């Protein structure tokens, strides 16, 4: 992400200028967060208010803790699919238990100073994870665009799209909902480009066109406009169900934890907890690295940020809310709005709390298709379309890891897809670093053939290495020099030993010697 220049003003919380900047930024982040919190929650199969609860905790608690000074936490589209599967498998009550355990694990990892190690995760795996999430999210939300229920996981949703298209074409209410969702996406795409029209508009409109996209975030504008049109025409589309903030806060009880330990559920619960922990941690810390490049203030302490995320998820679990991560969309909006200190993200949590407590009925007029449009747009942004071509040209192995991770997530589930991606990244790195080269001298004469091995001799390159050695003349003495190897694994050492014994055997017409061995 390109770097931007932040103003080197006084960052002290006592400075009036800093207060004004943080106050303004907090309002911008609040306006970005409301539709995303609600949309992520509904798409996860949870009450709309639970997304706001997670956003509130992300602001008031995680926002106060040390770690990253300007990034903002809340429910993220990247965990939507995984949360939906957890709710389907274990029930909404057990979701809090899963999030609580994941939060405690994050705290432990932070205490053990493992935060910085998340930077060692292959970027291709993370991009593939986000691309897979984006594909599954889009496939599921296409049903919500037509006020239909998704049949299940990724493969089932993709297989059901032709049937969805046929059902939508034959239903006026479904077509109306689809029009609402498509209109939302159109506004999301067009709003940031409004500034391009400024040169051809009259001066008052030109100023409005150039400044409006910076003041009003696209998700809020899209949802507000579409909601107003639906209310004006009283269109028969499904709307968000409102239960009230206190009604949705359900701390997990003993029965919820017991459900996770039932026969046949332990493995699934363990995989879900590990997926929550690893994915939320990796996404948060990658977001922190991106946000650090956007400002010139204090940089992130990864271990403290991991503990802050763990504390937030622990509280979210105790409240029965959604898991949280640091969200790059809100964080970037926070920086671009001029935030100077963590006060902006704390205030955004205050505004979310006031909104959820004082205006819960406002959610009841929002069409579900509009929120689905927001998430389809968000899912599309998770797919690195622009980055794919240069990655394929310059780092083809990384591109393969990205694609396989994404496809595996769509075909199986989040945990298995990410695990396969990590294994492929390790295998790719092992293959890339296991280069071994033989320098052969003396073949033209009649004396000893000198062979010097260079590089890293591992089992991955063993077939090619043995083929080259077996091709040497059988009637000549061969001296194999291993001193140029940086690494020689057990498999290669054993194979080279067997090759040497065969050359020295009764059927061999010449002697082979290994002059030196690698460590």
TrEMBL record:
Membrane protein topology class: Multi-pass membrane protein
Domain SLC26A/SulP transporter: 20-405
Chain ranges passing through the membrane: 23-43, 50-70, 90-112, 124-146, 174-194, 266-291, 311-329, 349-378, 399-427
Region (Disordered): 500-519
Gene Ontology cellular-component annotations: membrane
Keywords of the record: Membrane, Transmembrane, Transmembrane helix
Pfam family, one: Sulfate_transp
InterPro entries noted in UniProt: SLC26A/SulP_dom, SLC26A/SulP_fam
GO BP terms, alphabetized: transmembrane transport
Subcellular compartments: Membrane
Designated name of the protein: Sulfate transporter
Organism of origin: Streptomyces lydicus
